[in-house]
Design brief:
Strand order of the largest sheet of chain B: 1-2
Radius of gyration of chain A: 28 Å
Structural class of chain B: mainly alpha
Order of helices and strands of chain A: HHHHHHHHHHHH
Radius of gyration of chain B: 23 Å
Distance between the termini of chain B: 60 Å
Number of strands of chain A: 0
Oligomer: heterodimer
Chain lengths: 281, 547
């Protein structure tokens, strides 16, 4: 008899536990997917089913807004860092790139930039950064002198190979915690401060977060050892909107905020550092 | 303590040996992010340090402490040797190797991904392997807890499992559920990328899986403290536990409501639908139930003890309690911090209000107050209670221990209260440098400096803890009285199955998990939202022959 009692108690415990638990799940789901999704949005025309879909995370189908004519979006760069792009970049052929590069080195002479013509040094710049610029020249997102015509003459795989070739001509990597003293908040001069800390008051992110030496973003070139005049000219071009192929307009937003002296000082700062270091992605 | 003494001692010592340097790093970090000039103020070092501090405190200290505590509780509450001691030592070794691997990766600057290692941030493969081994090794402990409880039940049919054993097994199962998220993330998403099998990483999937762990792990940290609340505190106070059933229900509710709620860490993330966010926010509020239940039954138990000791009147029982005992003092301070931290947590878990404080210093302040305050102060008290039993040597000085607890409490309040305020002012978390000359940031200066002072007090308290433990262990042998757990006012003689085993509750939790996490995880298999990683390993780790 006590056994039967115990079994009955056990059954009622499990019945009550299941009822409460499922009840909680149902109540919260009705509130979350029904009430919240339906009534807490700025779209009174949304029907219940579309609202529930939104609550689940499926975009409501059909979208009414497509009926209106939209101005075509302004695109800074057509390059997308997709798996395919990266896979292509990884498959670059250095030997073939060296052959293609014979057309480039006449101006991009090895480590020495042609100062008067504002031509950047390419040796050791990372492949993704070079490839991005070539692609932008190819589709016309970036325009400068003869580069548009030269880039259009290259095939897709030429661009990959030549980028790989220049990236492979890297000097020894120099990363460690060794340059600790120069990266703190208390920077001796304004340029170094902008490079390592940025200027929160003006919404300027630190250069070094993308262009090294603190970190490197995909597609952003390392600037250390780059030609001073070239850097300064690019900053000015971004500031004036002459150059527009920066993803999300980041560089234009930053460069617009910099004074002429700051642009010069930053160019000096990066130009005077040890040479470029390659970084693959 | 039978055969578990050495086991528990080694686990505790790893936990505390890691705790001291991690506390030092915490104090240094407070200094770096303040307007006061700090030695070696460098952003790379700062993030390496934050990663080390977080990994050490969140994974290493807690896991080792909980495992050691589990073995000690098993032996003492069941009154028989722990089964599977060899397996336990193997688990200890695996966890230790994992810890060393992760620490080496962080110290070399190759894994500054912070302890949450959210992709697409990406660090050294050694870090991920280390984390995997540390968490995986602790699963041996989980299995051993379950085996020990079921074996005891087989030998004692119909008898209620002692509350401490029931609670530690619930803790172990909770940890298994919690860890499943990060383990699946590591195996399925992160390690394939780390070993180069994939070229991209699905940040949304990784974050969603990690959220399974991220909240439940907090309750895994908390449970040893709660076990002490229920089973040690009333004994030390000289009374009885108000209700055994309430204790069991508390641990069951923690098991149920701490896992299917992790999406409340992703309120600002786009990948989870708003409906699921609401459901999990709703379930999060239910976690308040076991906490309130605990505060009630602990206060009731203490009142019983206080009145038994001769306390009279409405509040007269409070001064009658033995406040000279470290455990008693710790529980008082712990409950104060739990009150403040809990109210802060209500803001975090509310879907709407969370937006005010999301990703600000408020969040850091909240979990320091709850975890480093409420929970860790109980770890100290548990250590003071257990040390004489494990080493056979009495605690050298209860006076010093009280000083240590008070310093920790004051340090934590001084650190976290201003921190909450700067969070409300909009100070982001996880940032190394602030320009305090900015008129917007200037009002934060006195608050941040107060936090630095709090950090230094905390470090002093951490040093004191180690001094007390080492002095006690080096002292002379004396026979210590065996560990006694509190008896309930009405000790259970027969319990329904639901309160004496955890099968039913695991089944319910499975349904909760399928309902709350099923679609949010499954959606990634048709969304295909993988992105390239953003490596933080620096130049030196370029793959050989890189482009």
């Amino acid at each position: 008899m006590p056994d039967r009692d115990a079994a009955r108690v056990d059954r009622s415990w499990s019945l009550i536990a299941w009822t409460i638990s499922i009840g909680l799940l149902v109540i919260s789901s009705v509130l979350g997917f029904g009430v919240l999704s339906r009534y807490q949005q700025n779209d009174p025309t949304l029907d219940l089913w579309s609202a529930i879909c939104r609550g689940i995370g499926i975009p409501a189908g059909g979208g009414g807004s497509s009926n209106f004519e939209q101005p075509s979006p302004v695109v800074s760069t057509h390059l997308v860092w997709s798996t395919q792009t990266l896979a292509r970049l990884r498959g670059g052929d250095v030997k073939r790139g060296e052959f293609v590069a014979r057309n480039c080195v006449a101006c991009h002479r090895s480590t020495q930039a042609n100062v008067a013509q504002l031509i950047p040094k390419l040796d050791g710049m990372n492949a993704a950064a070079i490839y991005k610029q070539l692609q932008d020249y190819r589709v016309g997102d970036r325009t400068w002198g003869v580069m548009g015509a030269l880039a259009k003459a290259l095939t897709e795989s030429d661009a990959v190979d030549v980028a790989t070739y220049f990236a492979s001509k890297a000097s020894a990597p120099a990363y460690a915690f060794d340059s600790i003293t120069e990266r703190g908040f208390d920077q001796p001069d304004e340029a170094q401060r902008l490079a390592f800390v940025g200027d929160p008051k003006r919404g300027i992110a630190s250069c070094s977060a993308c262009h090294g030496p603190s970190a490197y973003k995909l597609g952003a070139p390392s600037l250390e050892g780059q030609d001073t005049n070239y850097i300064e000219r690019q900053l000015t071009s971004f500031a004036q909107g002459v150059r527009r192929n920066d993803t999300f307009g980041t560089m234009r937003a930053i460069a617009r905020q910099l004074t002429a002296e700051e642009k010069k000082a930053l160019a000096q700062f990066y130009g005077s550092r040890a040479p470029l270091v390659a970084r693959s992605n | 303590m039978l055969n578990s003494r050495r086991l528990a001692l080694y686990h505790y010592w790893v936990a505390f040996a890691v705790f001291l340097p991690a506390a030092f790093l915490g104090a240094w970090q407070m200094l770096v992010r303040s307007p006061i000039p700090a030695p070696l103020a460098d952003s790379d070092l700062y993030y390496a340090s934050v990663t080390l501090h977080g990994t050490a405190m969140a994974y290493v200290v807690t896991t080792f402490f909980a495992m050691g505590f589990g073995y000690a509780v098993t032996a003492t509450s069941l009154g028989r040797p722990v089964r599977g001691v060899t397996a336990a030592w193997i688990g200890f070794a695996i966890c230790l190797i994992g810890t060393l691997m992760a620490v080496a990766a962080i110290v070399s600057g190759q894994a500054s991904v912070l302890y949450t290692f959210y992709p697409p941030l990406f660090g050294s493969v050694w870090y991920y392997c280390g984390a995997f081994l540390l968490i995986g090794g602790s699963m041996i402990w989980v299995v051993l807890m379950v085996i020990n409880m079921t074996a005891w039940k087989r030998d004692h049919p119909g008898e209620p499992v002692p509350l401490p054993m029931f609670a530690i097994t619930a803790t172990a199962l909770l940890w298994a559920w919690a860890a499943s998220g990060v383990e699946i993330e590591l195996i399925g998403v992160v390690l394939p990328r780390a070993f180069g099998l994939t070229s991209e990483i699905d940040a949304g999937l990784a974050r969603t899986l990690f959220s399974v762990t991220l909240h439940a792990i907090v309750y895994f940290w908390l449970m040893p403290a709660y076990i002490a609340f229920y089973t040690l505190v009333p004994q030390v106070a000289g009374g009885r536990l108000y209700s055994d059933t309430m204790g069991r229900l508390t641990f069951i509710m923690f098991l149920l409501f701490s896992v299917p709620v992790g999406v409340h860490h992703l309120f600002a993330d786009p990948e989870v639908g708003s409906g699921f966010k609401f459901v999990q926010s709703f379930l999060t509020f239910l976690v308040a139930l076991p906490t309130l239940l605990t505060v009630f039954s602990i206060c009731a138990s203490l009142e019983i003890a206080g009145r038994y000791r001769g306390g009279r009147g409405m509040l007269g029982w409070i001064p009658a309690l033995p406040w000279k005992e470290p455990m008693m003092l710790a529980v008082g301070l712990s409950l104060v911090m739990l009150g403040f931290g809990g109210f802060g947590g209500l803001i975090n878990m509310s879907y709407g209000m969370n937006m005010m404080i999301h990703n600000t210093a408020w969040v850091t302040a909240h979990f320091h107050l709850i975890f480093a305050g409420t929970v860790v102060i109980m770890y100290f008290a548990i250590a003071y209670e257990m040390w004489p039993r494990i080493t056979g040597k009495p605690l050298r000085s209860k006076h010093l221990a009280r000083w240590q607890l008070w310093l920790w409490f004051i340090g934590m309040i001084v650190t976290t209260f201003p921190w909450h305020v700067t969070g409300l002012m909009g100070q982001p978390r996880r940032v190394a440098f602030f320009d305090y000359t900015d008129p917007l940031l200037q009002p934060m200066v006195p608050l941040v400096i107060a936090s630095v002072i709090g950090g230094l007090i905390l470090f002093a308290s951490a040093v004191l803890l180690i001094v007390i433990l080492v002095r006690s262990q080096l002292g002379e042998n004396a026979l210590a009285e065996p560990l006694q757990y509190a008896l309930a006012v009405n000790p259970p003689t027969r319990l329904p199955n639901a309160l004496n085993s955890l099968g039913l509750w695991n089944a319910i939790l499975l349904v909760f998990m399928l309902g709350t996490y099923g679609y949010p995880v499954a959606q990634f298999f048709f969304l295909k939202s993988a992105v390239p990683t953003y490596e933080v390993t620096g130049e030196a780790t370029l793959p050989a022959g890189g482009q």
